[in-house]
Amino acid sequence: MSEQADIALIGLAVMGQNIILNMNDHGYVVCAYNRTTDKVDHFLANEAKGTKIIGAHSIEEMCSKLKKPRRIMLLVKAGKPVDDFIEQILPHLEKGDIIIDGGNSEYQDTDRRSKSLQQKGILYVGSGVSGGEEGARYGPSLMPGGNPEAWPHIKAIFQSIAAKVGTDPCCDWVGESGSGHFVKMVHNGIEYGDMQLIGEAYHLMKDACGLNNDEMSEVFTEWNKGELDSFLIEITSNILKYKDAEGNSLVEKIRDSAGQKGTGKWTAIAALDYGIPVTLIGESVFARCLSSLKEERIVASEQLPGPPTNKYQGDKKEFIGHIMKALYASKIISYAQGFMLLREAAKIYGWNLNYGGIALMWRGGCIIRSQFLGNIKQAFDKNPKLTNLLLDDFFKKAVTDCQASWRKVVATSVELGIPTPCFSTALAFYDGFRSERLPANLIQAQRDYFGAHTYELLENPGKFIHTNWTGTGGNVSSTTYEV
């Protein structure tokens, strides 16, 4: 059979269909395949009708229709389905052919697959894809990483279908092995944090300030005109003013129990594994876990007392201004922590990450797209070796300007009994990061006291010593180990 297609895509759920249609719009011939082949026929007869898109009813047929080097993109459920499809595809490939996983795979799986397939001469790419259904159709953020030899063969396709900021595509090569999926994982973790921060701002305006949903929608619309300009702020405004068929606010009828698919949890686990204090993303994951305890919270709400009132007694308009600044400062902390994690992973895995380029990839098309990311790109363009965003002049000034409001919001939230876990942990991180001295000296003394774990002296760092604190514990110290 003659070679016809530029690329094949496996998986005809909404994301897969929309990316195929996006590729078709940009002049590429795509071969569509799905494990349930009826979906292929239905897609060709409906959404893809009148396009250059072709179909296949078997893996063998799909591979036979591809130009060389063959390019095959998977948009299937992460985990075993990816491995299963790779095994089915391999017998029909030749050295130099390319497999691209565009799902939300765990980065260590991508690292494993990349190394295994490289030994077989197959070029493997794990690419983050963000932007949801609309992004997939009209321009997602794409974060490809893996075998760098694959990039010249997929670059034109990926950058043409990606979202654009000006003329710059929100897609570039991320780095080696599992780096593309790691960057996507951190993106999703930051997304968790952004959503929780917005939720906390909503909670304060609703309960403390007594604003109705239409009033809050107007506030978010105003916020979207300034530093907080972003996709999530925009859709929050739209959600709050949305009415159901009866003319009532729909958001008030939604059960307050948030779901999650795991990428935020993976980010928190990676942060713990690598010893990076990504506290805000971790707290946002725990906030979703707490929200899921709905029945227990109902019982607790009837038994556990809080402050006499949760209503703010001061100037509410002024306090809403403070909330905006607390949200902005906390958002800066979240991104600073995310980039700290990226830097540490790059060090561990030997990835050569372009942090300004990553900020640009997130600048458009993806869920966390915002004006703010342009400032992050500028920070890394100015200093590619920047160790922490908080040390960049722009962000240093922004946090300084917001600090009084931030502290007022956190303190007021505590007084009113309104939980703001991410505002609070962001401020705690900031205060910890700016502290020359923390109480860890006492913790080290305690560890040495009960477990002979040793400590270093300020005057002689690097030399570990043990003290017999009680006079009866002996002088033998524990060996050094990490957990």
Automatic annotation (TrEMBL):
Pathway: Carbohydrate degradation; pentose phosphate pathway; D-ribulose 5-phosphate from D-glucose 6-phosphate (oxidative stage): step 3/3
Keywords attached to this entry: Gluconate utilization, NADP, Oxidoreductase, Pentose shunt
EC number, UniProt record: 1.1.1.44
Signal sequence, renumbered to the chain: none
Protein name per UniProt: 6-phosphogluconate dehydrogenase, decarboxylating
Subunit structure: Homodimer.
Family: Belongs to the 6-phosphogluconate dehydrogenase family.
Enzyme class: oxidoreductase
Swiss-Prot/TrEMBL catalytic activity: 6-phospho-D-gluconate + NADP(+) = D-ribulose 5-phosphate + CO2 + NADPH
Domain called 6-phosphogluconate dehydrogenase C-terminal: residue spans: 180-470
SMART domains in the record: 6PGD
InterPro entries, per database record: 6-PGluconate_DH-like_C_sf (IPR008927), 6PGD_dom2 (IPR013328), 6PGDH_C (IPR006114), 6PGDH_Gnd/GntZ (IPR006113), 6PGDH_NADP-bd (IPR006115), 6PGdom_BS (IPR006184), NAD(P)-bd_dom_sf (IPR036291), Pgluconate_DH (IPR006183)
Function description: Catalyzes the oxidative decarboxylation of 6-phosphogluconate to ribulose 5-phosphate and CO(2), with concomitant reduction of NADP to NADPH.
One Pfam family in the UniProt entry: NAD_binding_2
Domain of life: Eukaryota
